[in-house]
Amino acid sequence: MRFKAVLLVTMLALWAFPAALQAQQKVVKIDGSSTVYPITEAVAEEFQKATQGKIKVTVGISGTGGGFKKFTRGETDISNASRPILEKEMEEAKKNGISYLELPVAFDALTVMVHPSNTWATTMTVAELKKIWEPEAQGKVTNWSQVRPGFPDRPLTLYGAGADSGTFDYFTEAIVGKAKSSRGDYTASEDDNVLVQGIANDPNALGFFGYAYYAENTGKLKAVAIDAGKGKAVPPSEETVIDGSYYPLSRPIFIYVNKKSLERPEVRDFVEFYLKNAARLAKEVKYVPLPPDAYQKAMERFKAGRTGTAFGGKSEVGLPIREIFQRQLTD
Amino acid sequence: MREMDSYIARSLWQDRMFACLGVLCTVFGLAALCALLVKLALDGASRIDWQFFFSYPSRHASRAGILSAWVGTLVVMSVTFCTAIPLGIAAGIYLEEYARKNWLTHIIEVNIANLAGVPSIIFGLMALGLLVYLLHLGQSVLAAGLTLGFLVLPIVIVATREALRAIPTEIREASYALGASKWQTVWHHLLPYASGGIATGVIIAMSRAIGETAPLITIGALTFIAFLPPSPVSPSPPFLSLDWLHSAFTVLPIQMFNWVSRPQQEFHLNAAATGLVLIVFTLSLNALAIIIRYRMRRRIKW
Questions:
Q1: pTM for the whole structure
Q2: Residue A28, burial from CB neighbour count under 10 angstroms (0-12, 13-18, 19+)
Q3: Does B158 lie in the same domain as B291?
Q4: The CATH fold of domain A2-107+253-326
Q5: Tell me, what's the ipTM?
C-alpha cells in the first residue's frame, strides 16, 4: 500500500514535464487513412528493419479527415491521405503555420463486384451505375431488370462502403457526380470483409470496395468492367489502372509530409526510404504502384522541398498521374 | 380432494416446466460461449506459438506477432492498476466509513452508481479532452492507463463499499470498545476482512479494462507499433526511468481489430489467435477472482 502511494505521487509529479521526456526519442509519427495504411505499415516495417530499430515509426488509423486534423495541428509528421487535402484543411494548416509536401505513393482502384453466378452484368456503364446509386433511386430501383433492358427479373441487393469512409466519398463523386450523394437503402459497412462476405453469398448482389479486397478474393467474387461512356468497358487490373484506362474509379493516394519535420534527419530518411521502396511494397500489399517516372518526380519534389497541393483544395475524379506533377502547386 | 390432487399436479407440472425453461436458457448462453471459444480456438490455435508471442506486427501474416500488443496491454493495465485501485478503495472506505450521511454524500453515491453504467466511449471522449488536449499527455501509455482507470474507478468503489458493508457492525463496535481509533479499526480489522471482496472487485474491474477498445481508439491509440516502451530499469543512474509512461503503445484488442479488417484470410487467423489469447487472459483473471473469494470466505468466520 505504501509503495503504491509513493508510485502514485511520483507519477503525479511526472505529469509536469512529459514534453521534456518525449523530446529525446527519435520517433516518426504517422496517422490518417486506413486505405493508405497497409503501404505505410509495410514501409515502416522495412524501415525499422533497415535502421535496426534505432528510429521508431508509429502508424495510426484515424481516417483521412481525422489524420489531417492532427496533421494540421502539428501533432504528426506525416499524414496518410486517400484524397487530396481540402480547402478547410489548407486554411487550418496555414493558420497553424504548417506547410507540407504532397507526395503520391500508389493507386487505389475501386471495384464494382457481383456474385460469380451473375452472368448478365459483365460490363456496366457509369450511367447505369448512377441510375442504381443516385439518391433518387432509393426504394425505386430494386430489380436488375430496371437497370438495363434484357437484365433478368431478379431483386437487386446493394452493398457498399459506409458513409464515413474515403471510399464512399470517392465512389459517389465518380459515379453520382457529387461526393457523399447516395441512396441510403443498401448494406453499408466500414469493414470491407463484411461486404466481401455479403456479395459472395448473395446471387443478386452488387457492391463496391477497394481493389485489394477483390484481389484477395478473386475466387468468390466477379469484377464488373466499367464503361465510362466511350463504348469500351475496362476491367480493373494493374495494367488498366496504371495506364489510366480504368476510369473513373481509380485514384492516386498520398502521403503529406510536414515541411518542418523534414528538418529532422529521421523523418527525411523515412520519406526517402518510402519513395524508393513504395513501388515494390505497394505491389506486395496488393495495391497498384505508380509508373516509375512518377516516383522519380515525387523524389525530385521531395529533394527540392516544394510545398503545396496540386488540387487547390478540391478533390477531382480520374486525374492522370502525369498531370499531378505538371500543375502549379498552391499552399 | 380430487380437485386438490389436480391442483398439486398442475403446480408440479408448472414447476418442472419452469425448471426446463431455466436449463434451456442456461444451456443457450453456455452454448453460444462455447461455440465462440471453439471457433476461435479452431481458427487461431494453429497460429499460437513462441514466434507469435515474440514478434512485432508485420505485413506478412505468418511472420506477424503480438509482442507490442501484449506488452502494451500489460503496461497500460499496470498504470490503471496503480491509479484506479488505491483511489477507488480509498474512496470506498471514505464513503462507507467516514462520510456523513447527508444529501451531498447521497448525490455522490447516486452518481458513482450511474458512472458504472456509462458507456465506455463517453469516458474516451472525456479523456480525449482532459488528458490528451488539456494535460498534453498525447497518445501515451499514461493517457491510456488513466482513461481505463477512470472507467473502472466506479466499479472498484462499489465493490469496496459492498465488501465493507458485509462486515457485521459488531466487529467495528468491538474494535472501538477496545479503544481503537477509526483508522485503526479500518486498517487492522475492516480492510483485512473486506480484502476478499475488494480483490474480487478489483480483478473484475481489470478484466473489464483489458478488453476495452472504444475509449482507447477515441484517445487515438496507434495501430502499428514495432517497438516496446523503454525499460523501467536502466543500468546507469538513476536506474529507474518513467519514460515508458510517455511511450506510444498498442493493445491486444486494437491489434485484433486491425487484423480482422485486413483483406487477407491469414490475418483473420492471426486475429482469432489474438482473441484466444485475450479470452484466456480474461478468463484466468476471473478464475483468480473466484479462487481468492473462496479462500477468503473460508478463512473468515463470524
A1: 0.79
A2: buried
A3: yes
A4: D-Maltodextrin-Binding Protein; domain 2 (3.40.190)
A5: 0.75
